[in-house]
Amino acid sequence: MTQEFVIALGKEAIMTALLVSAPMLVSGLIIGLMIGIFQAVTQIQEMTLTFIPKILVVFLSLFFFLPWMLNVVITFTTNIFQSIGSVAH
Question: What does the pLDDT read at residue 16?
Answer without folding.
Answer: 96
